[in-house]
Write a structure and sequence with these properties.
Largest interface: A-B, 33 and 32 residues
Largest sheet of chain A: 7 strands, mixed
CATH superfamily of chain A: Oxidoreductase, molybdopterin-binding domain
Largest sheet of chain B: none
Number of strands of chain A: 14
Strand content of chain B: under 5%
Order of helices and strands of chain A: HHHEEHHEEHEEHEEHEEEEHEHE
Distance between the termini of chain A: 32 Å
Number of helices of chain A: 10
CATH architecture of chain A: Alpha-Beta Complex
Shape of chain B: globular
Number of strands of chain B: 0
Order of helices and strands of chain B: HHHHHHHHHHHH
Strand content of chain A: 15-25%
Radius of gyration of chain B: 19 Å
Oligomer: heterodimer
Helix content of chain B: over 70%
CATH class of chain A: Alpha Beta
Chain lengths: 309, 209
């Protein structure tokens, strides 16, 4: 298992980079406050794509988290109201050990992983984000999967007094997402508890969120309070909102056009140049099938991806 | 009419003030939002993705100015304040912002990827609507001068009727852009439809108390 993990790790973040980054960050944390850390811009490039890893500032100030507002700067403004400790997670459905767990208890004993993944939003932009977390399959194995289970359903916290948009009808609350069990069990699928080796900021889905790098960003549900294993395909919030535009699978796919955006390419947030003016000139990259994570292709063999979008 | 004279009529003093405010002043005043946007960009106030902010802001300002242009006629009818002479400058500056909005999309957003631009212009409803609205405004902008008014004579009014479909389509473009129904966009569209409805009523001057 460890060899496999390291292989995966290296496929997405060359070892010298993540080791290096960890060193820099450890030094940074030892020396400085969060503010100072923000200024460390990773100079290392993601060699496979020649993209810079997005800065902490970029990742934490450009979020789609409708519970806190529809503007991408709203989550950074309002997410501080969220209480993330204590945090209970309900494990339900077709599992051996259902129940309500404290998050720490749930994660206890599971190996942590560092993964730098491309994040491709359905709106046509992308980022490169250094997550820390655990593999979802390790957690599911820990709670025990019953044979009949075919899907995994997730739910975000419903707490309108802290998530003010839940008082409006802008979406069906709570936010819901789902994966097929084999997608959930794929070692690339993680539950992130941190980024840049810091606890996950609230606007990014604290205290823990899903990250499925080969699917559009909205599949990676934030601030999870419920995980259930089911026999039937679960409903996802955006499919409820608009089934024609957002399918259950929502794999990154340049050949399936969204009615309102081109999916053929993506604008990489975090500009080419330096400073604020540099951020004005963002570069477009060709979008790749499965966001370039070809190792998941076997999960969809024989499926018509334009039908099951 | 005797009745009107008894009331305090503020029309005259207001029109005296308005006479001093030349339409040409607005060619400067209405460019201030653009200046503010540039200053914000330079100071980092536009955040992580300045391009998108600029694109949105230019579109918003353009549409709002278009709505103001539409509003000037009914306001004039209702108040007798002479605002008609500002219509040209409002319309032209609105067109200027909408053109900049389009150029931002073409150059900074789509980065001249023509194959994707063509797909967008044929298959994405909100982009098609935006483009149609801009195209409808082009003849208006070209003929917004005294020479055209003289030359086109009766046709001029017909050409400038295009502002109504252009505004409605522009409002729809705004509404269909978002992933969810957004209050601002709905509000904008309602205001546009209201202003157009006013065109079909004979508006009388409000009697001031």
């Amino acid at each position: 298992m460890d060899i496999k993990n390291d292989k995966i790790k290296e496929a997405f973040t060359p070892k010298h980079i993540y080791v290096n980054r960890r060193k820099i960050l450890q030094l940074g944390m030892a020396l400085s406050s969060l503010v100072a850390l923000n200024k460390i811009t990773p100079a290392q490039a993601d060699e496979s794509l020649e993209r810079k890893i997005n800065t902490f500032e970029e990742i934490t100030n450009y979020n789609n988290f409708y519970e806190f507002g529809i503007d991408k700067t709203d989550p950074a403004k309002y997410a501080h109201k969220l209480t993330t400790s204590p945090w209970q997670v309900e494990i339900a459905g077709l599992v051996e050990n259902p129940g309500k767990y404290d998050l720490n208890e749930l994660l206890d004993g599971i190996n942590t992983v560092d993964r730098t993944y491309r994040l491709r939003c359905v709106e046509g932009w992308s980022m490169l984000i250094p997550w820390n977390g655990i593999q979802l399959n390790h957690l599911l194995e820990k709670v025990g999967i019953k044979k009949e289970a075919k899907y995994v359903a997730f739910e975000t916290l419903l707490r309108p007094e802290e998530m003010h948009m839940q008082k409006t009808q802008v979406m069906y609350w709570p936010y819901r997402e789902g994966l097929r069990l084999d997608e959930a069990m794929h070692p690339l699928t993680i539950l992130a508890t941190g980024l840049y080796n810091q606890p996950l900021p609230k606007q990014n889905g604290a205290p823990f969120r899903l990250v499925v790098p080969w699917k559009y960003g909205f599949k990676s549900i934030k601030s999870i309070v419920k995980i259930s294993l089911t026999e039937d395909q679960p409903i996802s919030s955006w499919s409820m909102q608009n089934p024609r535009e957002y399918g259950f699978y929502s794999n990154v796919n340049p050949n399936v056009h969204h009615p309102r955006w081109s999916q053929a390419s993506e604008r990489y947030i975090g500009g080419e140049g330096e400073g604020y003016l540099g951020n004005l000139f963002t570069r477009r990259y060709d979008t790749k099938l499965f966001n370039g994570y070809d190792e998941v292709a076997y999960l969809y063999e024989g499926m018509d991806l334009s039908k099951y979008y | 009419m005797a009745n009107v004279k008894k009331n305090i009529d503020i029309t005259k003093p207001i029109n005296l003030i308005l006479r001093k405010i030349k339409p040409s002043y607005f060619y400067i005043i209405l460019l201030l939002p653009l200046l503010a946007l540039i200053i914000e960009l330079m100071s980092g106030g536009l955040g992580v993705d300045p391009m998108r902010k600029i694109e949105r802001e230019l579109g918003n300002t353009g549409l709002n100015l278009l709505i103001l242009t539409l509003a000037l006629t009914p306001i004039t009818k209702l108040t007798s304040f002479n605002l008609i002479r500002y219509k040209r400058v409002f319309g032209l500056i609105s067109f200027f912002y909408i053109t900049l909005h389009f150029l931002t999309w073409l150059l900074l957003d789509m980065q001249l990827r023509w194959d994707e631009i063509i797909i967008s212009l044929t298959k994405k409803p909100f982009i098609v609507l935006g483009m149609v609205s801009l195209v409808l405004l082009v003849p208006l902008a070209i003929t917004s001068n005294n020479y055209s008014i003289r030359k086109l004579n009766n046709y001029w009014k017909r050409v400038h009727f295009l502002i109504y479909p252009a505004a409605i389509i522009g409002g729809l473009h705004y509404m269909l852009m978002a992933k969810t129904i957004q209050f601002d966009a709905v509000k904008t569209l309602i205001v546009i439809l209201l202003l157009i409805t006013l065109k079909f009523f004979k508006l009388k001057k409000i009697k001031w108390l």
